[in-house]
Amino acid sequence: MTDGIALCCPRCDWQTEPGRRSRCPSHPDRQLELDYDIGAVRERFDPATQSRSDLWRYDPLLPVEADPVTLGEGWTELAEAPTTGNALGVDLGLKLEGANPTGAAKDRGSAVVATHARERDAGRIVCASTGNAAASVAAYAARASLDCSLFVPERLPDAKAVQPLVYDADLVTVSGGYADAYQRCRASASEPATVDRSAGASPYTPAGAQTLGFELAEQAPRADWIAVSMGNGGTLADIWRGLDLFSRAGYLADPPRLLGVQAAGCPTIHDRLHGSESGAEQPPGTCADSIDVDDPHRAEDARTALEESNGATITVSDPSIRDALGDLGAGEGVFVEPAGAAAVAGIETALERGLVDSGERVVAVLTGDGLKDTATALDAVGT
Q: At what positions is N6-(pyridoxal phosphate)lysine found (predicted)?
């Protein structure tokens, strides 16, 4: 539904209805943002009356009207983690985003983007990705009978490379890093009847991704912190948009603070906020390929979310990511991709630095399933 929802330019007063344009004519370099009439939100949506247990329980808050393109994404489990929490000294919950259909949180944005593409009669979706978004959008394009072209950097775990091929997507491997893949994708996105799902390219991606914030508001209303790893910064930014909307609508009394976690070998957003702390001895790159982003297109959105939530950022080493991956498996029976393990490693570092206090309620967002990258998992367990 779209009543009470507008798409607004963050640089001027220009706005439009959902479904019309994704860019401001005066500022085409900036993605439009969702703007909600809070009175309309309260009239149309009450979380206490929702019976669906998927992303589309939030249909009144989404800027699409077509029948949803869905594989049952969303409303993932929030599992308690007593063993790891006791070891850290916090009340720890794990948001299991690997339970989404393609094994990653990216399915939230892909579902809404694919629905929007079908709504506007587009025939093709494109995406630049380090892996998870590529696999995700390929699945939803297949579900919607849309063509799909994906642009990925050379270094990609086998599982993430195989998934798009199974979904019959066109997988284009680009020499260089994520920034190179992004530029190739932007050129391809200019073709007619094409929708771009890349970070920062469409307001419909964060529209779906913010449902993770809605769910955290419902499932963990007393959380002190939400810890999430950052690559492009979009997941953290969209979690905050969801939490903030629920707070303004009166559904969440006290929004949590955000802890943004980056790999020490790719601290692009952290360094923009605090200056470089990685040191010359830190090799570039990280085992957590999902957050190995050299040019984060939503860094400013992440900055805003961190400032508004009175949050913090932290960097963690690859050995600490592998340790957290192994600890979650052995202690909680949860197999998570390295980017998800980075969130738990970040909590430990934040405790050591006095950013998070002992005994606080902390939820770690585990962004993807461990089967996304079995090679790093084998390294983590010493095999």
A: 106
The pLDDT value recorded for residue 280 is 44
**Span of 185-199, 236-250, 282-296, 298-312 with lowest mean pLDDT:** 282-296
pTM over 0.90: yes
Nearest to 103 by CA among 382, 372, 383: 372
pLDDT digits (tens, 9 = 90+) for 105-130: 999 999 999 999 999 999 999 999 98
265 and 196 housed in the same domain: no
State residue 292 phi and psi, 5-degree precision.
-90, 75
Given this model, what pLDDT does residue 168 score? 97
CA-to-CA dists, residue 244 to 87, 285, 362, angstroms: 31, 32, 18
Helix (H, G, I), strand (E, B) or coil at 317: coil
Contact criterion met (CB below 8 Å) for 320 and 345: yes
Is 215 found in the same domain as 197?
no
For residues 276 and 362, state if they share a domain.
yes
Q: Which two tokens stand for residue 225?
A: 């912190």
- Together in a domain, 189 and 281: no
Asked if 250 and 287 sit in the same domain, the reply is: yes
Is 187:194 a contact under the CB 8 Å cutoff?
no
Instruction: Supply 350's token pair.
Output: 């934040």
pLDDT tens string 337-351: 999 999 999 999 999
3-class secondary structure, 14: coil
The domain in which residue 138 lies consists of: 105-202
The single-letter DSSP state of residue 301 is H
Burial zone of 52 (CB within 10 Å; 0-12 exposed, 13-18 middle, 19+ buried): exposed
